[in-house]
Specification:
Shape: globular
Largest sheet: 5 strands, antiparallel
Number of helices: 12
Strand content: 15-25%
Structural class: alpha+beta
Strand order of the largest sheet: 1-9-3-6-10
Length: 310
C-alpha cells in the first residue's frame, strides 16, 4: 500500500479547486483560516507570504516558488511588506471566484499566481500532515522538484485555456500536485546530512516502512508489535521505540487509529452494512466496532454516515 496516498485519501473531502490570478503592484490579499489546506505558486514576479498576517515570519517568494499551507491557517500574500492586504472572499460554494477576463491588450501583470485549496477532514487529520510546518516552501532551483514543476505547468495550461475534459483533468492534477509537494518535502528530509526523523524516517527507513505498509495493506489483521517488528528485522523494544518516535504514537495505537480512519472512509464512500465495515477493520463484533468508533469520532457509525451524506 502507498502510505502517502492513503494519508491524503483518508482526509480528503469534496473536490479541490484552483485559479490563476494576475496581480498589478501594489497588491495584497488576506485569506481567512479554513478547514482545508492551500497552496500558492508564483509563476511570475515576486511576493511575500505572511503566515497568520505576521510580518516577522514573512516568506519571500520568487518566480517558480511553491508554498503549501497544510494547516488551513489564515495568511496574507502581498507584493511588498508595507502593503495592507484586502480580504479575499471565496464564492458561495466555497470555490475560488472566477478571475476577471484578461484584456487582449493591456499592461503586463507584475505577478501571476496559481493558487488552490483542498478540503480536508480536520477532525481526523493524519499525523503525517500534522508534522508539517506552517509553510512548506519549495524554492525554485535548477533541477529540483521536477515533478512539482511539471504538474504546475500542466495545471496552469488547463486553467489558462480550459478545453474539453478540463473539469476532470484539473481536479486530478490538483491531487497529483498535492502528492508531489508532500513527497518532495518528506523525501528530501535528511538530505542535508542529518538523519531523517519523523515521517521522513517512517516513509524511508525499511523497518518502519514495512510495518506501515503491513498495517495499511491489511488493517483487519490482528497485528502484534512482535509481528510488525519482525517484518523489519528489529527487536520488539527497538521497533516500538523507533516507530513511536517517527510516527508520533505507539504501533498498536496507530493500528487502531488507522482502522478507525479506514472505517470512516468506508462509511463516507461505500454503502456497506456496518457488519462488513467492522469486519474489514478487524472487528468480529458490531458492538465492539461501534464502541471503538464512537470513542474515536465522538458519534456512532450510523450517525457519522448520515452526517457525511447530508
Amino acid at each position: 500500500m502507498d502510505i502517502l496516498s492513503d494519508a491524503v485519501a483518508a482526509m480528503r473531502l469534496g473536490r479541490p479547486h484552483s485559479a490563476l490570478r494576475d496581480k498589478f503592484a501594489p497588491w495584497g490579499n488576506r485569506f481567512d483560516a479554513h478547514n482545508g489546506a492551500g497552496f500558492h505558486v508564483l509563476l511570475r514576479g515576486t511576493a511575500w507570504l505572511l503566515p497568520e498576517g505576521d510580518v516577522r515570519r514573512a516568506v519571500r517568494l520568487e518566480a517558480g516558488d511553491v508554498a503549501f499551507l497544510a494547516h488551513g491557517r489564515g495568511h496574507a500574500l502581498v507584493s511588498e511588506l508595507d502593503v495592507v492586504p484586502e480580504e479575499f472572499t471565496l464564492a458561495p460554494d466555497g470555490t475560488w471566484p472566477a478571475p476577471p477576463p484578461r484584456p487582449a491588450l493591456g499592461p503586463t501583470p507584475d505577478a501571476v499566481m496559481l493558487c488552490g485549496a483542498y478540503q480536508l477532514d480536520r477532525s481526523h487529520a493524519h499525523p503525517l500532515l500534522g508534522q508539517l510546518p506552517d509553510v512548506v516552501h519549495l524554492p525554485a532551483r535548477v533541477g529540483a522538484h521536477r515533478s512539482v514543476r511539471a504538474a504546475v505547468e500542466l495545471l496552469g495550461e488547463e486553467l489558462d485555456a480550459p478545453r474539453p475534459g478540463s473539469d476532470t483533468i484539473v481536479p486530478a492534477l490538483l491531487d497529483t500536485l498535492l502528492l508531489y509537494i508532500l513527497r518532495a518535502w518528506w523525501l528530501e528530509q535528511g538530505h542535508d546530512g542529518a538523519p531523517a526523523s519523523g515521517w521522513a524516517a517512517a516513509l524511508t527507513e525499511p523497518p518502519l516502512a514495512a510495518a506501515l505498509h503491513a498495517v495499511h495493506g491489511d488493517p483487519a489483521h490482528g497485528w502484534t508489535v512482535a509481528e510488525l517488528a519482525a517484518l523489519g528485522g528489529l527487536s520488539r523494544a527497538a521497533f516500538a521505540r523507533r516507530f513511536a518516535a517517527a510516527v508520533g504514537m505507539p504501533p498498536l495505537a496507530y493500528l487502531t487509529w488507522w482502522r478507525m480512519t479506514t472505517a470512516g472512509r468506508l462509511l463516507r464512500e461505500a454503502d456497506l452494512p456496518l457488519r462488513l465495515v467492522a469486519h474489514r477493520t478487524g472487528y468480529t463484533s458490531e458492538f465492539a466496532f461501534a464502541k471503538a468508533f464512537k470513542r474515536e469520532f465522538g458519534v456512532a457509525p450510523g450517525q457519522y454516515r448520515t452526517a457525511a451524506a447530508a
